[in-house]
């Protein structure tokens, strides 16, 4: 069997990390098994769906490298197919028209709740042998209801939850077409999964209650349902379900904030799956290891500090040249054009950074003016050290501009003025980089332009 998975978001708002994890696992399972990953846009909610939301879904997946093999398919473009299947179901007696009005349904529910019964459709319009149906009201367009099996249970072995069972008597006859003939969500999903030959449905556990209804529709259409894996919810840092309302950010905002796609994949993977105690791994390792047997059954909790730590590990391990491309993009947003020094700058400073934005902050000091704080100047640029700064500047006018020569000039200046290394290095860092805390001074100066260093030292 060739594995075929899908990600089927509704474009009713921006896509956040909780949503994108529901794309990551089916993508990873398809890639790990040599299968096919399909993108399907479930856009039947016309009032809330938007092209802008579709664009963010596709942009976010592209940034994370979650490439799809087929699609995107749009449900609104498949209406003719759904209506054809509905017609077949009508012909086979699998569905029936129901003329119960919204007011009648509401009244029914109120009576059931008053009697402490579960609110559900009572089958008033369901045809049965020997049953007399109510007279058809004039001018009322019916909905179509699916004739759900009576008695018995719907059972499946969920790859996350284990054995799940629903009694058919708990499931009322689902509306699968509205009065205007447009099909409803649960029906469209089943037709799509059949037509696209989906073998594994990996999705959030907010869909668990839909699953027994969908399984019954599959079987009514003569098809076996796919394998299901219902993922636990992703919670935010306050322990609430991650959502826009609860402060979740669009996936693309993490890109703009300087996170690496491979780090995001690493972090998201660990929000509901594990491979022993491995915390940091590459995309390639993830795909080698991934299967559905190690999906967690408890809710994952988002932790931005942990995400930043994971990102820092990936940033440190990244090739300097590849990293410099991303940092150059961050600099370009600030109107700064980088040059051939940037890969070496990235290599020098990346151990101190957890995002490409933080790395761009350091790199900017090599391309734009720096302004040390008054506190740094007062603490480090003293009358005692100013003569030494002048001496160093004079030595840097014509010394060779390499690390060894710069180191020698710094040591000669320290010796000449009877200083210790920090007494000279700190003020030079403040003047040249705007802060007293940097990597090795000779390595920093080597990457700076000679005239820039001399000009900044003159500001002592």
TrEMBL record:
Intracellular or extracellular location(s): Cytoplasm
Gene this chain is encoded by: gltX
Assembly mode: Monomer.
Domain Glutamyl/glutaminyl-tRNA synthetase class Ib catalytic stretches: 3-309
Catalysed conversion reaction: tRNA(Glu) + L-glutamate + ATP = L-glutamyl-tRNA(Glu) + AMP + diphosphate
Similarity section: Belongs to the class-I aminoacyl-tRNA synthetase family. Glutamate--tRNA ligase type 1 subfamily.
The protein's name in its UniProt record: Glutamate--tRNA ligase
Statement: the UniProt record of this protein carries the keyword Protein biosynthesis: yes
């Amino acid at each position: 069997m060739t594995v075929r998975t899908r990600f089927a978001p509704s474009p009713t708002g921006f896509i956040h990390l909780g949503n994108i994890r529901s794309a990551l696992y089916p993508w990873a399972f398809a890639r790990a098994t040599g299968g096919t990953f399909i993108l399907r846009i479930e856009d039947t909610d016309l009032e809330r769906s938007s092209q802008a939301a579709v664009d963010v879904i596709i942009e976010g997946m592209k940034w994370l490298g979650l490439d799809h093999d087929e699609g995107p398919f749009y449900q609104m473009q498949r209406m003719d197919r759904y209506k054809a299947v509905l017609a077949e179901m009508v012909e086979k007696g699998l569905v029936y028209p129901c003329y119960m009005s919204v007011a009648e349904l509401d009244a029914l529910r109120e009576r059931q709740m008053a009697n402490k019964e579960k609110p559900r459709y009572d089958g008033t319009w369901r045809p049965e042998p020997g049953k007399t149906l109510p007279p058809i009201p004039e001018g009322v367009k019916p909905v179509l209801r699916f004739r759900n099996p009576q008695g018995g249970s719907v059972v499946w072995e969920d790859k996350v939850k284990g054995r799940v069972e629903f009694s058919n008597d708990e499931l009322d006859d689902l509306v699968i077409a509205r009065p205007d003939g447009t099909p409803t969500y649960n029906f469209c999903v089943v037709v799509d999964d059949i037509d696209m030959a989906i073998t594994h449905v990996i999705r959030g556990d907010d869909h668990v209650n839909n699953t027994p209804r969908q399984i019954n529709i599959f079987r009514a259409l003569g098809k076996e349902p796919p394998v299901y894996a219902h993922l636990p919810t992703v919670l935010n840092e306050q322990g609430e379900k991650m959502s826009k309302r609860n402060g979740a950010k669009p996936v693309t905002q993490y890109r703009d904030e300087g996170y690496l796609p491979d780090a995001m994949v690493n972090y998201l993977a660990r929000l509901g799956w594990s491979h022993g105690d491995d915390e940091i791994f590459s995309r390639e390792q993830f795909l080698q290891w991934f299967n559905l047997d190690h999906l967690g059954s408890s809710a994952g909790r988002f932790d931005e500090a942990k995400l930043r730590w994971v990102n820092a590990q990936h940033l440190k391990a990244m090739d300097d040249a590849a990293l410099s491309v991303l940092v150059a993009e961050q600099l370009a947003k600030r109107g700064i054009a980088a040059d051939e020094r940037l890969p070496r700058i990235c290599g020098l400073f990346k151990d101190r950074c957890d995002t490409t934005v933080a790395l761009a902050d350091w790199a900017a000091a090599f391309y734009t003016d720096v302004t040390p704080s008054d506190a740094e100047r007062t603490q480090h640029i003293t009358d005692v050290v100013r003569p030494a700064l002048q001496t160093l500047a004079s030595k840097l006018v014509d010394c060779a501009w390499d690390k060894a020569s710069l180191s020698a000039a710094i040591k000669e200046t320290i010796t000449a003025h009877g200083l210790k290394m920090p007494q000279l290095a700190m003020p030079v860092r403040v003047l040249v980089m705007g802060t007293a805390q940097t990597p090795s001074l000779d390595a920093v100066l080597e990457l700076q332009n000679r005239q820039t260093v001399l000009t900044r030292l003159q500001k002592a």
